[in-house]
Design a protein that fits this description.
The protein is mainly alpha-helical. The protein has helices spanning 2-15, 23-39, 41-47, 54-70, 76-79, 85-114, 121-127, 153-164, 170-188, 191-200, 203-211, 216-231, 235-248, 256-267, 269-286, 288-292, 296-304, 320-324, 344-364, 371-388, 401-415, 427-432, 461-489, and strands at residues 129-132, 145-148, 314-315, 337-338, 342-343, 393-394, 419-424, 439-444, 455-459. It has a three-stranded antiparallel β-sheet with strand order 7-8-9. Strands 1-2 form a two-stranded antiparallel ribbon. A two-stranded parallel ribbon has the order 3-6. The two termini are 26 Å apart. The model is unreliable at 119-152 and 417-455 (pLDDT under 50).
Length: 490
């Protein structure tokens, strides 16, 4: 089921590749890609309006070179068409690949947090075992039937057939087989799968990438990869990937001091110095053309040009400054004095610095067992402040939250986790009498407390169906909206 939903998400993205997206940005990327492929990155920075990090220029160079293998980028009428499918395909494959990387990272982060220690062979076998209790005597362990599912799918089917050959009535026999398979698949559809599907089938993610044509997924994927390396205690790899991340997407630059505060808190001074060294080496390699040709001034310009690129209250970001501008954030300059004292840009910068200081202090003062959670929570605080407090904010500056808050859910699922499981009460009498009398709702911390839950609630059959309908309603709505979007776009 998980694989089918992932394939469904990929198919949806490929069906939407032909959407032109935000035409202005796509046109900029075509022009910049052509310039860097013909003249090099130094000429691009000094002679065009390029305002992205230096690393992203290499991505545009690769896109242009791949395009040139199939068509000529000098065919003006074809290359500059808004619906140039080949260019859109090559470019949007970046966002699709980034989405798939984020799905993989969510699953791996979930596995690491929920299973911090490596599994032994015996523990894996124990996880694949469960018991079906004989309803005639629920308390009698002698009447229980233990079914062990080996790793292969063929052996799983054989185990289901063995359970179906019991001496019980025909309907109950098939019910046992159904319940066995249902429990097996549900037990393997873990939290990481649910959260990764929430990301991959999220309408905001699909719209921002293959419809709008942006690359926020690319920056988020690199930042989450650095977080994963921190989680598995690989700080050197984390520092290298993080440096690449903010040299590819400027939104990641806001995490620079904060990222190294975490490394210092967890690993100490010596590790901080070593990883700063690896970050500097990575930086020098990526910006090598600038220092090799003595164009440091152009590099400094590239990192500072965005400070006043859009000097407005807000760039369609519905934040506090948009409200302060009365819904006209794109028409009011952030150099305007607030209450006749100080301009809006300075107020935003001071407010952002205050929240940034809080985020760093939360990490610096956190206990070791809560350190990673505080790092993720404080990262979310920084993104919120970046979007809501600073002026000149774009509507996409909250995109990092789509990945960060999922990691926070994974962490909190271990600290305050209660699993909800439903079990048929008296399986045989239910189908012998051709109707269910009641269902048992068990709320527990984890599957080991199946027979000793936190508390139990007896609910009616009608309530049981209403509950299941409510839980599945959001998924049905999302699928329906996706189908409507596909229909509208086609």
């Amino acid at each position: 089921m998980f694989g089918l939903l992932i394939v469904f998400g990929i198919v949806v993205r490929f069906l939407l590749i032909g959407v032109p997206g935000f035409k202005a940005d796509i046109a900029f990327w075509k022009g910049w890609g052509l310039a860097v492929a013909d003249k090099g990155i130094i000429w691009l920075v000094n002679n065009t309006n390029y305002n992205y990090p230096p690393g992203f220029a290499y991505v545009l160079w690769v896109v242009n070179k791949i395009y040139a293998l199939f068509k000529s980028p000098y065919d003006i009428n074809d290359y500059w068409r808004d619906n140039n499918f080949l260019y859109l395909l090559i470019f949007k494959l970046i966002t699709i690949g980034a989405d798939l990387l984020i799905v993989w990272l969510i699953i791996k982060i979930t596995e690491r947090i929920t299973n911090p220690k490596p599994k032994t062979q015996n523990s894996k076998q124990n996880e694949n075992q469960f018991q079906i209790q004989n309803p005639k005597s629920e308390a009698s362990h002698a009447d229980s039937v233990a079914i062990s599912f080996p790793a292969s799918a063929r052996d799983q089917r054989q185990a289901g057939k063995i359970a179906a050959r019991s001496q019980e009535p025909w309907k109950s026999r098939h019910l046992h087989d159904f319940v066995s398979r249902f429990k097996f698949y549900v037990s393997h559809f873990n939290l990481g799968h649910w959260l990764s599907l929430f990301y991959f089938l999220n309408l905001a993610v699909i719209f921002d990438g293959v419809i709008w044509g942006q690359v926020d997924q690319f920056g988020l994927a690199l930042f989450m990869l650095s977080i994963y390396f921190l989680l598995v205690d690989r700080p050197k790899r984390a520092a290298i990937v993080f440096t690449v991340a903010w040299l590819m997407k400027f939104q990641n630059i806001i995490f620079i001091p904060f990222f190294y505060v975490y490394i210092f808190k967890k690993y100490g001074w010596e590790s901080l110095v070593k990883n700063l060294m690896w970050s500097v080496i990575t930086f020098l390699v990526i910006v090598a053309p600038f220092w090799y040709k003595r164009e440091i001034a152009g590099l400094i310009k590239l990192f500072t040009v965005n400070s006043d690129w859009f000097p407005w209250y807000s760039l369609n970001a519905f934040n506090s400054w948009w409200l302060a501008a009365g819904g006209k954030g794109l028409t009011l300059s952030d150099k305007t004095l607030v209450w006749g004292i100080v301009d809006a840009k300075t107020i935003g910068f001071l407010g952002f610095s205050f929240f940034y200081l809080i985020a760093c202090l939360r990490v610096f003062l956190a206990e070791h067992r809560q350190l990673f959670r505080e790092f993720i929570l404080s990262s979310i605080l920084i993104v919120f402040a970046f979007f809501h407090v600073l002026t000149q904010s774009h509507e996409r500056y909250l995109f990092h939250l789509v990945g960060l808050w999922l990691i926070l859910i994974i962490i909190d699922s271990q600290t305050r986790k209660y699993k909800l499981e439903t079990n048929l009460d008296n399986l045989n009498p239910v189908f012998q009498n051709k109707k269910a009398t009641s269902y048992e709702l068990r709320i527990m911390r984890n599957s080991r407390h199946l027979h000793n839950p936190k508390f139990k609630i007896q609910i009616s059959k009608k309530t049981f169906y209403v509950l299941h309908f409510t839980l599945h309603l959001p998924t049905a709505i999302i699928c329906l909206l996706l189908l409507l979007i596909i229909y509208y776009c086609l």
